[in-house]
Specification:
By secondary structure, this protein is α+β, with helices and mostly antiparallel strands. The chain has four helices and eleven strands.
Length: about 240
C-alpha cells in the first residue's frame, strides 16, 4: 500500500488498488472528498499524483468519515460506475460507533430501515413527504470492547444520500458521538467514528466482481468478535 501526503506531510490517502482507469483509496477522516479545505481534497491529491488524468468521483464520503473511495481516471470509467451505482450493483458496508441511551438495546434495531431525506443548508432532515427515499440495513450491533456506553453497528448502505447514516442513526436514538450536526450531546469531535469498511463492485478493466476490505487499520480499535466474523464472511462472500 502506498500513502500520499498533504503539504504538511501528514498521510492523506492510502492507495489500495490501481489500474489505468480507476483507483481504490482509503480516505482518512478530516480530508474532504472533493471540496478543498485549506486547498486540499482527496480529488486534488489524486490529480497531483496522476497529472495526466482528470479524476472523477462516482461516490463521496463526508469529511469526518473515513474509508474506501473509488476514483475514476477516465471518462469511460466514470460513465461505467455511475451506471453501476444507478443499477445498485455496488455493495457498501459501514462501521459506525454509536451512543446508547439508558436501557436501550441497539440489537433490537437490527434490520431494514427507511426514511425520506432532504438537505437544507448543509444538514440532512427526515421528512414525511417530498424527500429522497433512503434505505439502509443494520446487519449487527455489538458493544465496543471496554465501553459499555458505546456500540458498533455494521450497516449496509443501500442508498447514498447526504449524511444518510448520521441522520438516520440519530433519528433511531443512536447518534454517532462527537457528530457536530446530529449528536445533541456532542462534546468531543475526536469520538466520531464512521468508516466505509467494505466495498463490492465490478472492476471496469476486468469486468469481474471485486471486494476491497482493509483488514488491519489501527485507528479502528477493538471490535466485538461477532462483528469481526461477519466482516470476514461478507468479504469472503460466505453465506451469500
Amino acid at each position: 500500500m502506498n500513502s500520499e501526503a498533504t503539504p504538511n506531510s501528514e498521510p492523506a490517502f492510502t492507495l489500495l488498488k490501481q489500474s489505468r482507469n480507476e483507483l481504490v483509496v482509503f480516505k482518512p477522516a478530516g480530508l474532504s472528498s472533493e471540496r478543498p479545505g485549506d486547498g486540499v481534497s482527496l480529488k486534488s491529491l489524486v490529480a497531483q499524483r496522476f497529472p495526466d488524468c482528470k479524476p472523477k468521483l462516482p461516490h463521496r464520503l463526508d469529511r469526518v468519515t473515513r474509508g474506501l473511495l473509488l476514483v475514476c481516471l477516465t471518462p469511460e470509467a466514470i460513465t461505467f460506475h455511475n451506471q453501476q451505482i444507478q443499477a445498485r450493483r455496488w455493495e457498501k458496508y459501514y462501521l459506525a460507533r454509536v451512543a446508547t441511551a439508558s436501557g436501550q438495546a441497539p440489537e433490537q434495531l437490527v434490520g431494514a430501515h427507511k426514511a425520506f431525506l432532504t438537505e437544507v443548508e448543509g444538514r440532512a432532515h427526515i421528512v414525511h413527504s417530498g424527500g429522497k427515499p433512503s434505505q439502509l440495513e443494520i446487519l449487527a450491533a455489538a458493544p465496543v470492547p471496554d465501553r459499555i456506553d458505546r456500540f458498533h453497528l455494521l450497516i449496509r448502505l443501500q442508498t447514498g444520500r447526504f449524511h444518510q447514516i448520521r441522520i438516520m442513526c440519530s433519528a433511531l436514538g443512536l447518534p454517532l458521538p462527537g457528530d457536530p450536526l446530529y449528536d445533541p450531546a456532542a462534546r468531543d469531535p475526536a469520538e466520531f467514528y464512521l468508516e466505509h469498511i467494505i466495498l463490492k463492485y465490478e472492476d471496469f478493466d476486468t469486468r469481474t466482481r471485486s471486494t476491497i476490505f482493509l483488514r488491519d487499520y489501527p485507528e479502528r480499535g477493538a471490535i466485538a468478535a461477532k462483528i469481526e466474523t461477519l466482516l470476514t464472511d461478507i468479504a469472503e462472500e460466505k453465506g451469500s
